[in-house]
Amino acid sequence: MLLMRLTAKKSLMTCPCCPSNINNLDNFFDAANARKEAQHYLKKGLDKRARKLIAYLLTHCRDPISVLDIGCGAGGAHLELLRQGVASHALGVDASSGYLAAAQANAAQLNLSDRVTYHHHDFAQTAASFAPADAVLMDRVICCYPHLAQLLGAAAEHAERYLCLSFPRDEWWSRPPYRVVDFFQTLFRSKYRFYLHPRSQVVAVAQAGGLRLIHTDRTFFWQIMVFARPQPFKDRANQHPPSVETPG
């Protein structure tokens, strides 16, 4: 297992200047927590939140789709889509090298390595280097990032058909606990901060990217949203321009 983790870490695709480790993500989301999450998925499958995140895709995608998993963590969501035949291939991007190594190890254990690629990047800052995908996943991601419009806007632009999000519910009773979390992060001199983005702002950014909200769900703590593009990129590219008659 140790050899698998070391091999996975060496083979992650990185660039010399990325990621910037914004919000201390590469240190806060470390390898130890990543291994626990990865092992939990192998033993018990996805948790309730992640199951709801991909449920719409499982029931509405008849043909295999490409998946871009931004902030992919230990990879459970896209690996499950690959296992169930909904995804033809997937690309995982994360600012945490520890979580990417765990995701790649799980992909190898599930014999899915030939259908998934991982990149160690801050997607918001390197989005232009990635191609769009049929479905973009963001599971518990925007709450870890300070610049909602930059990150979610880039994700929306890369969603050819669907954008699936999970993020903390912004309710009156949910705000105090998250403030306590940030208080203790400050107390222990951690640079990581938690961001509770209002639902209305999330919807507005996605809509500005040409998407419309088609499905919602939730758990006690988490809001689930699925957005769709009314006319996917591929459909528009296949349309023929209207003919124009030239004067005789």
Structure keywords:
disordered C terminus, 42% helix, disordered N terminus, alpha/beta, Rossmann fold, single chain, 248 residues, 7-stranded mixed sheet, globular
Short précis:
The chain is α/β, with parallel strands linked by helices and 248 residues long. The protein is 42% helix and 20% strand. The protein contains eleven helices and seven strands.
What would you say this structure looks like, in words?
The protein has a single domain (2-12, 23-238), classed as Vaccinia Virus protein VP39 (Rossmann fold). The chain has 11 helices and 7 strands. Mean pLDDT is 81; it is low at 1-19, 23-29 and 239-248. With 248 residues, it is α/β, with parallel strands linked by helices. 38% of the residues are buried. Strands 3-2-1-4-5-7-6 form a 7-stranded mixed beta sheet. Helix 8 (148-157) packs across helix 10 (199-208).
- Which term fits the overall shape? globular
CATH architecture: 3-Layer(aba) Sandwich
Question: How many H/I helical runs?
Answer: 11
CATH C-level label: Alpha Beta
Give the H and E element order: HHHHEHEHEHEHEHHEEH
Q: DSSP strand (E) fraction?
A: 15-25%
Residue-averaged pLDDT: 81
The N- and C-terminal alpha carbons lie at a distance of: 75 Å
